[in-house]
Design a protein that fits this description.
This protein is of the alpha+beta class. The protein contains four helices and eight strands; from the N terminus they run E-H-E-H-E-E-H-E-H-E-E-E. Helices cover 24% and strands 27% of the residues. Strand 3 and strand 4 form a beta hairpin. The longest helix has 16 residues, at 167-182.
Length: 221
């Protein structure tokens, strides 16, 4: 996440609910269910992410456990749309995602160097070095209609490693992460072709709502 104008603490834990996973063998038949929220319950937040299931993602998850073992398991991900409230229904938001993402082709991004947002937030992250502009363009196209949201910080593509509890911890974690990443020998390329629309069900708990593929429609009609 960011730097320079790269100030945007949109880090959030995502926990896959595999009993409702968007990526079952019958993904093409996936039907988006409507959820009824009790009266008075705060409106949930939503986000669009790309899970990073490559060796780089495994590296980040392992490093996160080492730097901040108290955190719950967090799936490595890139945020396309950071957490936001919807201006309409889930189904309307998914229709927007389907329409726009269906017109976009999959593309690769390249992970760059380790950085930190400290002192703004005690977050350690890996900058997106190549094709970050493509992510920015996609973010801008999707930030419309029911998904439109006035974000506090400029959108800066990145892969979060960990959000520490204080600035001094972030500085220490940054040095450790930078050295480990320098010695990482796996691929730093990430293919963005399958995104996931997620919903926050409780603090630090996000569940998959719908798969969103670039270059083709979300659900067979």
């Amino acid at each position: 996440m960011r730097y320079q104008a790269a100030l945007r603490p949109d880090f959030f834990p995502i926990i896959n609910d595999f009993s409702r996973s968007a990526f079952s063998p019958r993904e093409r038949e996936f039907q988006v269910k409507r959820y009824n929220f009790p009266p008075g319950m705060p409106s949930p937040r939503y986000a669009l992410v790309a899970y990073v299931k490559s060796p780089a993602g495994e590296f980040v998850e392992k490093l996160r456990r080492e730097l901040h073992p108290d955190l719950p398991h967090l799936a490595a991900h890139l945020s396309i749309l950071p957490p936001r409230l919807l201006q309409g229904s889930e189904s309307q938001a998914i229709e927007v995602l389907e329409r726009i993402c269906g017109q976009e082709e999959p593309f690769e991004v390249m992970l760059g160097c380790v950085e930190t947002f400290a002192p703004v937030t005690p977050t350690i992250f890996i900058r997106i070095e190549a094709a970050g502009q493509r992510m920015c363009q996609l973010h801008e196209k999707l930030n419309i209609d029911g998904l439109q949201y006035s974000e506090e910080w400029p959108y800066i593509p990145h892969l979060t490693i960990a959000k520490m509890g204080a600035e001094h911890l972030a500085r220490t974690a940054y040095e450790t992460a930078r050295k480990r990443w320098d010695h990482y020998s796996g691929t730093r390329r990430i293919l963005l072709e399958k995104l996931t629309f997620v919903r926050e069900e409780s603090p630090n708990c996000w569940v998959d709502i719908a798969p969103v593929r670039l270059g083709r429609r979300l659900v067979s009609r």
